[in-house]
Amino acid sequence: MHDVVPNPVTDRLQACLDAQRAALAQNGPLTPERRAQGLDGLARAILRRADDFASAIAADFGHRSFHETKLADIYPVVAALRHARKHFRAWMKPRRQPIALMFQSGRGQVLYQPLGVVGIVSPWNYPVQLTLSPLAGALAAGNRIMIKPSESTPRTSALLEQVIGEVFDSSEVAVVQGGPDVAKAFARLTLDHLFFTGSTEVGRQVMQAAAENLVPVTLELGGKSPALVAADYPIEKAAERIAVGKLFNAGQTCIAPDYVLVPRDREDAFIAAFRDAAARLYPTLVDNPDYTAIVNERHFERLRHLVADARVCGARVHEINPGGEAFDLTRRKMAPVVLTDVPENALVMREEIFGPLLPVVPYDDLDEACRFIAARPHPLALYPFSQDRKTIDRILERTVSGGVTVNDTLLHCVQEELPFGGVGPSGMGAYHGEAGFRTFSHARSVFRQARFNGAGMTKPPYGGRMNRLLSMLLR
Questions:
Q1: pLDDT tens-digit series, residues 72-116
Q2: Is 220 a catalytic residue?
Q3: Which residue from 2, 109, 333, 444 has the fewest beta carbons nearer than 10 Å?
Q4: Which of 16, 254, 370, 413 is catalytic?
């Protein structure tokens, strides 16, 4: 017999989980009053430390626009916490359900019960939003929560741990930091639910690890989210809105437009309009406080490799550098790039880009464009542009995606009344608003038998009475 070798990482995570399970056994789920206090307290804490979060994220990225942080990390979190605070009591109310005729006058209802202890693994690209937005749903549902933030944004993760520790006891919400070894061990914990946001590749590994203990998962992944510009839509307006969505956070957004389909006879016009729009949005790049850097050297080199590979494959590379600036590569600022004539075997057409690179794919008719999208793994988002409702409906009927913003980009993500999530390779499950509450709740079916009922008709010994009943039920 071999002695079990202690593993400090596993032991630390297990101790945290055990402490939360012990608190759950002793005190039960978080009460509605504690949920309300926690949601209110965390919203106030985030607002109070908004500038600190903007500074921490900027330091982690090398440079990150303060405005982008407050718009995409602070605002959505505060909105999610306030929305959950306002509505969770209504969401948790038991729902009366109708009962089949032969079982009346029994009563049926659905009770929404906290799952128990849930885990959240969050990424680096929006480190506050993608940690605390799922937390809002998990907390509203009454769960105890363990969080593993990204090691790629260490200053932000440390600040998250500090702020969460000011609002919650670790038996309620705990933050565990560490690298890939901690993330792997976290995914193997016997949690009651695991919520992961990240790449499709890592999502497969997380799902496989969670399956060892039959832990249910919500996967918020990514993929290649297309924009499709129909022939009737003004090309300049489409180009500007796609540029806004593509270049926000320097393209490091899971729902950023990954490539754009345009009518073949308008391809050159789109490229010119996109170039003009990018120049208006970011007249300079290197020292522009509005233009975000690539998060680290590994991702920066990955993006440079995508451009180099596309060039080798025969694509044309159109760099957008309005100020004609020289780039200091150590600062990891990357000029926007439009790619045309890109063959399908190029890496940039097969991998999620997650940066300021935009392949343009020309098409001859709308059905061809829809077939192009439908032939590929289901994306997390889709952006159709048309002023004709029938055209939009046709695109929606012939494609599948996690979510959609019509005639703009990104905006479906910040609607708390709309569920947000992927489908197939872009994820499973949804959150935001009530959808998040449902994700982190067990819908428990309860049938309450009436004092006077007809259950006696269905028990042995069987005979003519049962035959008549079955004849009535099955006719």
A1: 999 999 999 999 999 999 999 999 999 887 778 888 999 999 999
A2: yes
A3: 2
A4: 254
